[in-house]
């Protein structure tokens, strides 16, 4: 604690006592490590993050395979229909439309919109405040993708 040396404003703090009172993640990531860090233990945060991350990764893997199969199958069917003469594609028009879309994308990518920057800032703040929970989620997500 702080002890008064004399009548002035100078104080002596015992840092060893202060360090013992702080949790380890506060020492590493600072005192503002977020609401989840204050409510739950580190093990609970890792478990919650890991389980939700695994579920999200597993679903992402399954839905991704389904979407890839649907898109690939659709392209396959379109190629068969084009080859057999059921449909006729105007490739010059496709090329013209693709070039027009490229120009529009180049114009809009100079600087991201304010809404995107705001959301990115919100995500960064959440990750910084809940670093243990986020780490558990990331690990669980990768395990979910692998399973």
From TrEMBL:
What biological processes does GO assign it?
Answer: autophagy of mitochondrion
Q: How does it sit in the membrane?
A: Multi-pass membrane protein
* Location(s) in or outside the cell: Mitochondrion outer membrane; Nucleus
What keywords sit in the KW lines?
Membrane, Mitochondrion, Mitochondrion outer membrane, Nucleus, Phosphoprotein, Transcription, Transcription regulation, Transmembrane, Transmembrane helix
Q: Does the keyword Zinc apply?
A: no
Q: Which GO terms describe its cellular component?
A: mitochondrial outer membrane; nucleus
| Record has Membrane as a keyword | yes
Q: Which family does it belong to?
A: Belongs to the FUN14 family.
**Could you tell me which PANTHER family the record lists for this protein?**
FUN14 DOMAIN CONTAINING, FUN14 DOMAIN-CONTAINING PROTEIN 2
Q: What does the UniProt record say this protein does?
A: Binds directly and specifically 1,2-Diacyl-sn-glycero-3-phospho-(1'-myo-inositol-3',4',5'-bisphosphate) (PIP3) leading to the recruitment of PIP3 to mitochondria and may play a role in the regulation of the platelet activation via AKT/GSK3B/cGMP signaling pathways. May act as transcription factor that regulates SREBP1 (isoform SREBP-1C) expression in order to modulate triglyceride (TG) homeostasis in hepatocytes.
- Indicate what this protein is called per its UniProt record: FUN14 domain-containing protein 2
Species name: Pygocentrus nattereri (Red-bellied piranha)
Give the gene name: FUNDC2
């Amino acid at each position: 604690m702080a002890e008064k040396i004399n009548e002035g404003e100078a104080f002596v703090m015992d840092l060893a006592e202060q360090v013992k009172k702080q949790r380890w993640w506060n020492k590493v990531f600072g005192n503002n490590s977020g609401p989840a860090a204050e409510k739950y233990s580190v093990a609970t945060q890792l478990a919650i993050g890991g389980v939700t991350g695994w579920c999200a990764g597993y679903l992402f893997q399954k839905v991704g395979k389904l979407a890839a199969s649907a898109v690939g199958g659709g392209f396959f069917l379109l190629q068969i229909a084009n080859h057999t003469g059921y449909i006729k594609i105007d490739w010059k028009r496709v090329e013209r439309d693709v070039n027009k879309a490229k120009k529009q994308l180049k114009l809009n990518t100079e600087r991201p919109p304010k809404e995107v920057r705001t959301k990115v800032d919100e995500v960064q703040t959440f990750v910084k405040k809940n670093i243990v929970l986020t780490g558990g989620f990331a690990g669980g997500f990768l395990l979910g993708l692998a399973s």
